[in-house]
Amino acid sequence: MPISLIALALGGFGIGLTEFVIMGLLPEVAADFAVTPAVAGWLISGYALSVVVGALGLTAAVNRFSRKRVLVALMVLFIVGNLLSAIAPTYGIMLSGRIIAALCHGAFFGIGAVVAASLVPENKKAGAIAIMFTGLTAANVLGVPFGTLFGQAFGWRSTFWAITAIGVVALLGLVFLLPAMAPPRAGTASLRQELRAFRSPQVWLSIAVTVLGFGGMFGAFTYIAFTLTEVAGFAASMVPWLLVVFGVGLFAGNVLGGKLADRNLDASLLAFLGALTLVLVFFALTAANPIATVVSLILMGGFGFGVVPGLQMRVMRYANGATTLASGANIAAFNLGNALGAGAGGSLIASGLGYTAPIWAGAAAALVAFLVMALAAAGARRRAAASALPTDRGQHEESRSEVAARA
């Protein structure tokens, strides 16, 4: 494993903390700013929508510069946003800090995925992307639950001060561990060149699967603190430890998803999406049972995040060589799904349908994602067969010519 992948994982760890730790602290933040849970949820969905903007806008704007310098600059932006969140006197300023930090998120993972894939052989690219996302999953296994516990003990602001410090460590890792990278060659980094990726129907189908699949999981997970306390009956002090359970599932799913995607990309994605649909249905039916809830958290994390390296690799595979903006667009799709899932979940809760309603909506979204993925896989098989047919026919005709010549 190239040591430079560790630098990318460090950056992913810091960004993962910022994105997910707010979920465990949402009740405390809502109470501090005197806002409803649905309004507090905008600290999650607003972040996710800003990731979409950064993933597309920033990635397109910085594509001509050295990727190392871009990643370092994005980490500085991340530090500034979290510092503002830590000192925010009002909900509006807190949301502004979240938006600033989010702008770096999509571009960082989009560009980082391209860098990670470029550091390893062809048959290990999805695994390399998974290693970068290991930082994101580690943030859930360790950072999010302990950040939540830290915030509950010393105030939620202390968590954002800690994340700011972690951002500084990640910045140093990028500076000293990531190899120097020359800017892209002239003529290869233009926006027109990058936009050619979106001529591929497979890219659009993959992005649709990302929005639906990730939206399904995070629609269920956004208000998980309320589900755990109000439905399953867990004490608030148990929430950080239950998030550890979810994080273990994320970590395992990410590693396994990368390995299986390198073996059979489309089959692995179909398996994970189908399993995620079934798990969410099970969770919705058994959310009042504490034991079943723990099992559901592990499986939801595993199957939900198991699609991440595969979907990222799939978009890059069908991007017609224009991988950077396509990679960023898929990161945007992950967070668009996050925002839509969080928004839909908040609306369902506000409508009085209860804290299991977002889980049911997540199951429906995951099912549609499975169906779209099946359509994409069938199209990819037809394309591969059509590409091979002329070659096979040519070889057959050549063999007939050789037989006739010998005769």
Task: Kindly describe this structure.
- The protein is mainly α and 407 residues long.
- The protein has one domain (4-181, 188-406): MFS general substrate transporter like domains (Growth Hormone, Chain: A).
- The protein has 16 helices and no strands.
- The chain starts with a helix and ends with a helix.
List the helices and strands and how they pair.
Layout: H1 4-33, H2 37-40, H3 42-61, H4 67-87, H5 91-118, H6 125-154, H7 156-177, H8 191-195, H9 201-221, H10 224-231, H11 239-263, H12 265-286, H13 290-305, H14 308-317, H15 323-350, H16 357-406
Overall strand count: 0
Helix content: over 70%
**Beta strand %:** under 5%
- The total domain count is 1
Query: H/E element string?
Result: HHHHHHHHHHHHHHHH
Radius of gyration: 22 Å
Shape: globular
Weakly predicted, low-confidence segments: 391-407
SS field, number of helical segments: 16
What's the story with the biggest beta sheet? Answer: none
Label the CATH architecture: Up-down Bundle
